[in-house]
Amino acid sequence: MKDPFLETKAIRTQIERTQFLEHSNPLYLTSSYVFEDAEDMRASFADEKQRNIYSRYSNPNTSEFVEKVCEMEGAERGYAFASGMSAVFSTFAALLNSDDHIVSSRSIFGSTQTMFNNILPKWNISTSYFKIDELDKIEELIQPNTKVIYAESPTNPAVDILDLKRLGDIAKKHNLLFIVDNCFATPYLQQPIKFGADLVIHSATKLMDGQGRVLGGVTVGSEDLIQKIYLFSRNTGPALSPFNAWVLSKSLETLPVRVDRHCDNALKVAEFLEAHDNVNFVKYPFLKSHPQYKLAKQQMKLGGSIVAFEVKGGIEAGRKFLNSIKLLSLSANLGDTRSIVTHPASTTHAKILEDVRLETGITAGLIRVSVGLEHPEDIINDLKQALEN
Ligand SMILES: Cc1ncc(COP(=O)(O)O)c(C=O)c1O
């Protein structure tokens, strides 16, 4: 049979049915698994058999979730984590040694930046940053001890787009790992492995769950890299819980239809904001005015669910706007059915130095809207009354 489409893989990738021949996959709330006899136990621990031993190592629910993400991203193998940040941290901790060096995009999630700046230096692992419009300077940052090029696209929260193929080519030329956080796009809109990524990381907390219920993370890539990440994680314990994996695996079944509607709504919201007199600028990858519009169209199927914009009148006007919101939620999450409005400079990116914030487009008045699945007219009406209040 022809290789199924991504939408079908998201629904039909399944672990074996039990004796009850259930249609919907059951939840395996078990911390460990039993052995037939002493020899079975010995052989399982000696890795002579592939089977579940203990849920910190693997569990049918986490295996199914990971298998689906691998199918959708075009990866060989993966490991599921308790959160997006545990996926980011464990990936770096598993693959890097002390004194290694990372070359990273400046425009990355706040906690990832804090990890690079304040946590990895404990092991003398350092990071040099490049600006999203200075990819031609990356090669100057590469040192003999550089091991990784790291990027997000679209970026959080300024929704800038980085040329993943170009980054992948630079990494390959210098024999470096290329790691991409693909959380904003999801594998439905963009598959970084096609552009040369060795590993793809997701915060599954966002669009993969899509309903704001569970935390989760996942890293996928080649068999040999994931084996190292697996051995690190199996011994250090950042595993995803079976319950959260069960929720996430079910959620992936509807990811393509949800993301389609998120993107339709987000484009409508972006067009509305762009035409509004009280808005300084709007950033949305599929708006013609976006600086990397052409690249976004090449790399992504649709523009994503996040719109960034600035209210006229500076920080005070921004605060007034947020306080006037009635229907949407003021929250730090994104990728939910419920539309969410955030002020990144005072929340998700507050711990980052002001000049670094400005360099990555996070102005004091920048507002990030995670456009949800409410009727688009209701979302727009709420934004309109808050802008005109
Ligand atoms: C791009 C990106 N990466 C990683 C994370 C961290 O994910 P989690 O909150 O699941 O730890 C986030 C969270 O907002 C994010 O936006």
UniProtKB/TrEMBL annotation:
CDD domains: CGS_like
InterPro entries: Cys/Met-Metab_PyrdxlP-dep_enz, O-succ-hSer_sulfhydrylase, PyrdxlP-dep_Trfase, PyrdxlP-dep_Trfase_major, PyrdxlP-dep_Trfase_small
Enzyme Commission identifier(s): 2.5.1.-
Function: Catalyzes the formation of L-homocysteine from O-succinyl-L-homoserine (OSHS) and hydrogen sulfide.
Class of this enzyme: transferase
PANTHER family listed in its UniProt record: CYSTATHIONINE GAMMA-LYASE, TRANS-SULFURATION ENZYME FAMILY MEMBER
Keyword entries, A-Z: Amino-acid biosynthesis, Aminotransferase, Methionine biosynthesis, Pyridoxal phosphate, Transferase
One Gene Ontology molecular-function label: transaminase activity
SUPFAM superfamilies registered for this protein in UniProt: PLP-dependent transferases
Descriptive protein name: O-succinylhomoserine sulfhydrylase
Residues with N6-(pyridoxal phosphate)lysine modification: 206
Pathway: Amino-acid biosynthesis; L-methionine biosynthesis via de novo pathway; L-homocysteine from O-succinyl-L-homoserine: step 1/1
Quaternary structure and partners: Homotetramer.
Protein family according to the UniProt entry: Belongs to the trans-sulfuration enzymes family. MetZ subfamily.
Cofactor (UniProt): pyridoxal 5'-phosphate
Reaction(s) catalysed by this chain's protein: O-succinyl-L-homoserine + hydrogen sulfide = L-homocysteine + succinate
